[in-house]
Specification:
The chain is α+β, with helices and mostly antiparallel strands. The protein has a single domain (about 10-135), classed as Hotdog Thioesterase (Thiol Ester Dehydrase, Chain A). The chain is built from two helices and seven strands. The strands form two sheets. The chain has a five-stranded antiparallel beta sheet. It is globular and about 60 Å long. The two termini are about 35 Å apart.
């Protein structure tokens, strides 16, 4: 894979919002919306951003820090806002915020969750392909870009530490 980097794209070029009203079919045994339903909406919104930013198919590689701040209820209108925070050669970090508002009230939306997902752009054979660099436009975009670099460093360090531990345990004869 030696394709040249495509021209950069501004953060706003792929930013998106998906909205969905929660129904009884979305609830868990406690009567609130199931976390997995919210996670699917998060993945859908992030996937739309990744596809838009990369200009083609992209697949979820990981999800970091899915945080649920408040329960979501039947009748809530859920807004999932996503944007590309950072890009590498073939991967992108997508930041997502989840907001709710009652469908029948004029109150401001409440943030109920957030997540960071990493997507890899793929070609027709399913192989990683080069993505355009993201071009942060605002101070907030630049802060998100810098924070994404910190998260990437931590993801790579965690992966390396786990691999080294497994190799060490295998060398010591442990059958994990």
């Amino acid at each position: 894979m030696n394709d040249p980097a495509p021209p950069g794209k501004p953060t706003a070029a792929s930013r998106t919002t998906l909205s969905h009203i929660m129904t009884a079919a979305d609830t868990n045994l406690l009567g609130t919306v199931h976390g997995g339903v919210i996670m699917k909406l998060v993945d859908d919104a992030a996937g739309a951003v990744a596809g838009r930013h990369s200009g083609g198919p992209a697949v979820t590689a990981s999800m970091d820090e899915m945080v649920f701040l408040e329960p979501v209820h039947v009748g809530d209108l859920v807004h999932v806002k996503a944007q590309c925070n950072w890009t590498g050669r073939t991967s992108m970090e997508i930041g997502v915020r989840v907001l709710t508002e009652r469908w029948n009230e004029a109150a401001p939306p409440t943030q109920v969750g957030s997540a960071y997902l990493v997507f890899t752009a793929i070609d027709a054979e399913g192989k990683p392909r080069t993505v355009p660099p993201v071009l942060p436009e605002t101070d907030r975009d630049r802060r998100r870009f810098q924070e994404a670099e910190i998260r990437r460093t931590h993801r790579l360090a965690r992966r390396r530490a786990i691999r080294e531990l497994r190799e060490r345990r295998a060398a010591e004869g442990y059958d994990d």
